[in-house]
Known about the structure:
The chain is of the alpha/beta class. Helix content is 52%, strand content 8%. It has a five-stranded parallel β-sheet with strand order 2-3-1-4-5.
Amino acid sequence: MEIRAATTMTTQSIPRLKILQFDRSLLHFHAPIRTSLRFPVISRTTLRKPLFTTCSLADETTFSTVTKVAVEDPSLAVKKKAADMSPELKGTSIFLVGMNNSMKTNLGKLLADALRYYYFDSDSLVFEAAGGESAAKAFRDNDEKAYREAETEVLKQLSSMGRLVVCVGNGAVQSSTNLSLLRHGISMWIDVPLDMMAGADQSDLAASEVSSQLSALYNEMRDGYATADATISLQKVATQLGYDDLDAVTTEDMTMEVLKEMERLTRLKKMMEEAAKPL
């Protein structure tokens, strides 16, 4: 984990930049099916800018009301927690690893909104470069090496910027080069039980096959996921909150846990830096 000031990108400067402006002369792969990667220029209209509301507290009654709303509304509680710790992050980007699922995606978007960061999905950028998800799959099947190089190039571009929340695909944990790129920010493993992702009765043959495929992929990627700076387990969060049903865990619950881990990591980083200073 490397916590650093985001000197290359600020909230004010982002709208005037053309993000991820890839050098096409370096990345123009030709697969046997005549597929080529054409990396897009992501304009400011592509960026998902968060909305952040500030309140003017006129008196003690207003303060009490706002505090009560913040407690009752989980999304406001998340934003308050993010606002409290945001200065310590200094614009450090957040990378979310783990099996692709709706919880990971929704968490990433909520976290970006709360921190006033920008949200990206690395797989989506590779898909767009290839001309769509189906074209990307065909490209990967015909030239996996070139596809992996494209994944690395996307991560290289994203890791060079600050103030981002990035949901990264499995390619991010499949090579030492990609894992080193994740060290430019804080990485979090969002661990969701496989049976929740399968989302069907295991007695059904098709569902059983899906579960088997997910289990094989999970076992293949688990060591890579485990290199993250912290693990946020949905099952553990459910236990901490006293939920018997895992489905009761909300995106806000998981996001709050991510923020707490980020706070712990930044505090630890600060303590280590203080300890390293000469007397």
